Amino acid sequence: MKNKKDIKESHETSISFLDFNSPEEFRYLEQLILYRLNVYFPDGNDIPKPLPIYKKWSPKLFEFIVNHKLNINEASLLVLGMIPHIQPDLFDNLINFKLNQSGDFQKIGGVRGKDFRGFLPTAEIAIFLLAEDDFNKRIEIQKLFWADHIFEKKKILWLDDHASGEPEMSSKIMFSKEFLDQFIYGESTQPKFSIHFPAKLIKTELEWKDLVINDELITQVNELKSWLRYNSLLVNEWNMSGRINNGYKALLYGPSGTGKTLTVGLLGKEVGKEVYKIDLSMVLSKYIGETEKNLEQIFAKAEDKGWILFFDEADSLFGKRTNVRDAHDKYANQEVSYLLQRIEDYNGMVILATNMKNNIDDAFMRRFNAILKFSIPEPDERVKIWRLAFPQDVQFYNNDQPADIPEMVKNYVISGGSIINVVHYACIKAFERQQNKDTAKRIYYTDVLAGIKKELLKEGKPFG
């Protein structure tokens, strides 16, 4: 712990615990804290109220403040939320310097963390610093934490859940890691998959040539590409905002393994947009209101970024509403209603995939911009998939004779995903058969048939 002798001199004021290279916005907040503490614990030094010089602040933070027209209180609250993550000892140093009681001053607020031993700011300290004991200003600062404020809507800064029966303003100030990285390091990092962000970034190394679908489906997929490329230009350059929807909702339905997930990955890859697949097992909750809360984390982060949100096996979340028989049915229906409205409001593309179209709630069906049917491929399409799936330099054999295995097995009615599984199985068998002196890649018809049999039996279909 520093003492008075350790306090550094600065040009602006005689007191600073910050390193010379600390960002200008941190120096501003430090002087604001000293100014307010000096009101209650004067030491003979006249500490003036600081004014933020935004142009000297970190470039990304300054840009955000200007673009969103934030006022001085909003800008100060951003810095207040950032401080513990970058300068964790600042609060303790300043409070202990001014208070001999080790910070035992109720107006300041703040809490100690479970693992972090330092001071964590709550909404109370924001009110203490910014409202200056003015009741009307206190109300004004409290509104910065409301749900309709940009901080909460974009999940930049918000209040942690408060203990039952305790004042809401005693809650910790939470700060988005994404925006923290953006303001401090000048770039945003990829959101980390967790209970607070139950979505994974999906990418594919495949190309459109690897996706075998019919011509009608290709036309529909091209419509999705066009929307992703041109809708924002239509809104901004042709002044269509308010007259057309900023968002787009598509349903992909059909049996497993028919290319739904690959299509979504290829869409994002072609237009340069990130695709996040929502993990519904983490989203769904038996506790009332938790499902909506989990989903809101995703939608809030995704807003204005152009992300494609992908819900696989969507019927588990977007299923038909039921007749209300008990409280569980009531809240299940409320979840569906919430999802319907939230997807309607999202200004990007939302894609739902399901094996069972008939299970999707009718209210969703009416609002989809596009419904794409993925079918089990026809024989000619299956031949293409077989040829694409095997390594290009393999040799096909039936017993000891060369053979065109893709042509021989095209009449087995299986999906593209099942074909990949069979190819994987046959290639492993080829390695098992391969002799050390024989480097040829030989795929045998009997191994492919065995793989097909395994896939058909998994689906409960006869092998003949």
From TrEMBL:
Q: Entry's Pfam families?
A: AAA (PF00004)
Single GO MF descriptor: ATP binding
Species this chain originates from: Sphingobacterium daejeonense
Q: SMART domains from the xrefs?
A: AAA (SM00382)
UniProt KW keywords: ATP-binding, Nucleotide-binding
Please report the name of this protein according to its UniProt entry.
ATP-binding protein
Query: Mind telling me which Gene3D superfamilies this protein's record contains?
Result: P-loop containing nucleotide triphosphate hydrolases
Recorded hits in InterPro entries, A to Z, give: 26S_Proteasome_ATPase, AAA+_ATPase, ATPase_AAA_core, P-loop_NTPase
Name the protein family.
Answer: Belongs to the AAA ATPase family.
Instruction: Kindly give the PANTHER family that the UniProt entry links to this protein.
Output: 26S PROTEASOME REGULATORY SUBUNIT
Residues of the AAA+ ATPase domain = 246-378
